[in-house]
Write the structure tokens for this entry.
Amino acid sequence: MTINDQLALQRSQAGLRLIAQTTLYNSGNFARLRTFIAESYAPALLESMSAGARLLGFRQMRADHGRLRVQQVLAADPHHVVVLMADEKQGALSLHDLEVEADYPHRILSYHAAPLDL
């Protein structure tokens, strides 16, 4: 990740949420990640898939791919980021798209992670 990518994420509420979520994911602290999901995802998002179910997805992703590392910020504005990440185990690339509410506390409105097939 370049300094410009780091600054783009730090200047965006969505980027800050992605940094927090990825840091917890990479640490393997799944109890804290579950709490983060429960507190940081919008209620409508949690109704469609519970914090526990989302955590299972993150656990499976970690088992399959290991930790994630930002390769490049593709798009960033105050409430939406799209980031290219590489996994630890194979160096495979994936797109991570996160959007937050405009108003405080900037809960996550959507989060999608998808492998990038090259």
About this structure: The CA atoms of residues 10 and 16 lie 6 Å apart. The mean pLDDT is 95. The domain at 3-115 is CATH 3.10.450.50 (Nuclear Transport Factor 2; Chain: A,). The first helix runs from residue 3 to 10.
